[in-house]
Design brief:
The protein contains 14 helices and no strands. It has 333 residues and is mainly α. It has one domain (2-324).
Length: 333
């Protein structure tokens, strides 16, 4: 579905512009465009809804059954894990390079330390559960993704059972959206459930398991729950993404390109941005007037996209192919 590339690309670019203009790069903040891109952190919510849709849709096309749960989790870990570990290693290298070069860490870098708990917690994405800080901020979303994979691995067969009725769907979706309430706001598992549920609703509608009235009714309910669980902007971003997946049909070549490298861009833009800023500071002094900060914002973003493309080709794509070698039992050879 080409419209997913557009959504992924916009979401990844929004996160980059949000971080670069508001937090990650000291030499270009405060940035005149910072307030404009302050909404960019909602790109994460867009990613969650897309995952909520894409994962069960791929499982549906591949003939997934509960017997393939181990294969499914293995495929997802191979697909996402090694690229994120390498990106993590690049950030660790930058941290210690800054200590060696400047005798102090990079400004604004909240470092969790290098003990065994932090290393394992970062590698296996147990930040909320283990109360562990990530080596760099974007990693926390992979914990939410992994928890969703564990949930959908067992919930999916119930979704595509031919005997499932609207009552059963309501019960299942209510259970999936309930963990926030069961933990009274202090959620350590499946915290962003309402956003993933929006994606699941889009999936069920697209495979014609629910009709339009049911989709809209449950979709609005999920938006209201999300507003209560998280906040109103997250609910709006999630809801718009849910409806865009179903009803938006537009895309273009740049969106397809950006969507393809969106994961690489997401997990490497901290490294490429910090590195580019260091080089610019070394070459030009790193002092800019407001217009210069705007120009450098877009230069750093272009560098991030270029580095993400290389990372995608050299790192992410090989692991996509490797994950593709793991097939479900029902798949055609």
């Amino acid at each position: 579905m080409d419209n997913l590339d557009l959504l992924r690309g916009v979401a990844a670019l929004a996160v980059v512009l949000f971080h670069y203009s508001n937090s990650t790069l000291p030499t270009i903040k405060p940035n005149p465009l910072g307030p404009l891109f302050s909404w960019g952190d909602l790109g994460v919510q867009v990613f969650f809804v897309i995952s909520g849709f894409v994962i069960p849709f791929a499982m549906y096309q591949s003939g997934y059954t509960i017997a393939n749960a181990g294969r499914f989790i293995s495929k997802r870990l191979i697909r996402l894990g090694p690229p994120s570990w390498l990106a993590m290693g690049l950030i660790v290298a930058i941290y210690y390079a800054a200590l060696w070069k400047n005798g102090k860490p990079i400004e604004g870098m909240d470092w969790p330390g290098m003990n065994i708990e932090s290393v394992l917690g970062n590698m296996f994405y147990t930040f909320e559960i283990g109360n562990i800080k990530p080596f760099y901020s974007v990693l926390w979303t992979l914990e939410a993704e992994l928890q969703y994979y564990l949930v959908i691995a067992f919930a999916f067969p119930l979704m595509v059972n031919n005997k499932t009725s609207k009552v059963h769907y309501l019960l299942l979706l209510s259970i999936l959206a309930s963990s926030y309430f069961l933990h009274f706001g202090h959620v350590i598992f499946f915290k962003y459930n309402s956003l993933f549920v929006m994606g699941i609703l889009a999936f069920l509608y697209m495979i014609q398991r629910i009709d339009r009235n049911f989709f809209f009714s449950c979709g609005l309910a999920a938006i209201m729950i999300c507003s209560f669980q998280l906040d109103f902007p997250s609910a709006i971003a999630g809801g718009l993404t849910m409806f865009a997946i179903v009803f938006m049909k537009t895309t273009n070549r740049f969106a397809k390109f950006l969507g393809g490298i969106s994961y690489s861009l997401y997990i490497t833009h901290h490294f490429s941005g910090i590195t580019a800023e260091f080089a610019a500071k070394w070459l030009f002094g790193g002092s800019y007037d407001p217009s210069g900060k705007v120009v450098m914002l877009f230069i750093f973003t272009a560098i991030a996209i270029s580095f993400a493309f290389l990372f995608y080709k050299l790192v992410e794509q090989p692991f996509i192919r490797l994950a593709g070698l793991i097939r479900f039992k029902q798949e055609n050879k």
